[in-house]
UniProtKB/TrEMBL annotation, chain A:
It comes from the Bacteria. It comes from Vogesella alkaliphila. Signal peptide: none annotated. Pfam families: P-II (PF00543). Gene3D superfamilies: 3.30.70.120. InterPro entries: N-reg_PII (IPR002187), N-reg_PII-like_a/b (IPR011322), N-reg_PII/ATP_PRibTrfase_C (IPR015867). This is Transcriptional regulator.
Automatic annotation (TrEMBL), chain B:
It holds the Pfam family Sbt_1. InterPro entries: Sbt_1. PANTHER family: SLR1512 PROTEIN. The keyword Membrane applies. It comes from Vogesella margarita. This is Sodium-dependent bicarbonate transport family permease. Keywords: Membrane, Transmembrane, Transmembrane helix.
Amino acid sequence: MTFHAKKLLTIVTEAVLEAPLVKVLQQLGAHGYTVSDARGGGSHGVQGGGWSFEGNIRVDVVCDAAVAEAIAAHCQQAYLPHYGLILYVSDVGVLRADKF
Amino acid sequence: MTLDPVVLFFLLGLFAALARSDLKLPPALYETLSVFLLLAIGLKGGVALAKTGSPQVLLQVLLVILLGTLLTLLAFAVLRWRLSRVDAAATAAHYGSVSVVTFAVAASFLARQGIEAEPQLTLFLAVMEMPALVVGVLLARLGDRQQLRWGQLAHEVFLGKSMVLLLGGLVIGWLAGPKGIVSLSPLYIDLFKPVLSLFLLEMGLLTAAKLGSLRRQGSFVVLFGLLVPLGFACIGLGSAYAMGLSAGGALLLATLCASSSYIAAPAAMRIAVPEANPALSLAASLGVTFPFNLLLGIPTYWMLTQWLYA
């Protein structure tokens, strides 16, 4: 079995950003994404997720390195100054390269 | 007078969270209950409007929009004394806007005493949410106009969940009328108070969670959260008297003025004014003003109403 090298970009951020973020992902060339509700704690305190707007989301995107960089650059410029946001990239292998 | 049992549910939630009980309602239930409450309030108001609505209501709606704008500006002026412009603007938007649950508790307070209020108060509830959000964003953005995304703000303000459900319920109730609503009333009318009690249990849990962050915000926020509702309630009472509303209507309008938003406004401000500190506005609105209105505010506003209408 051969796996094709791709990047897995994971963003954990405030739930209010879901709609604008998803729009940007598609504009920047991501072919798909997965959003899930998330709970956790960090420098912005504990995010209990009791409210729809107080909760956190985790967005996973599998894409090319260039797309991952473009998304990361956008997040850094548009969201990092004022929103709680964590972003990391990892190397993954995918079965069907044409899907991403 | 004894406390309304629905308020006791709020106290139960507050106690449970403060005593670190493991009580927690699933977020999906909270969402469902809020959808129910908004629809039920809208429907009830719509049916009543269909029965007794008069064209005078339109003029009153305009006055109420002005009132919401005025309250936001007033709150901003007071807050600006101690807070930065963006924080003052975002918090002012919370206080110019309204709390649906506080309104529901005031309506329940009236119902327990068998006092009627004008049906258009539900319409006031729906329209008073909007001006504060717009004015709050404008106040925060004075000077740097290029940053303002009008389309996004309009979408947030006019198509937010609470607006769609409240106005949608009003229209459905108005179209259906008293006869058409009969088949729906077992759920939306008869079950209103039991559902409100469950919702208030959740509100108690959430309020307790905010009390912790209140300590970090300082005494100015606490004083603001206690005194501004009283002042705003008086403005509301005066306006209701001038508009010729009944005593029941006056209590509801005073409560609307005194209440502050903790659902629509925080979400809208987080998107439109991200530099503002959301913990500060929410601590004041949910940690101070909401419990104050529920426990002491509404009975006090009623005393003032009776004094004014005597």
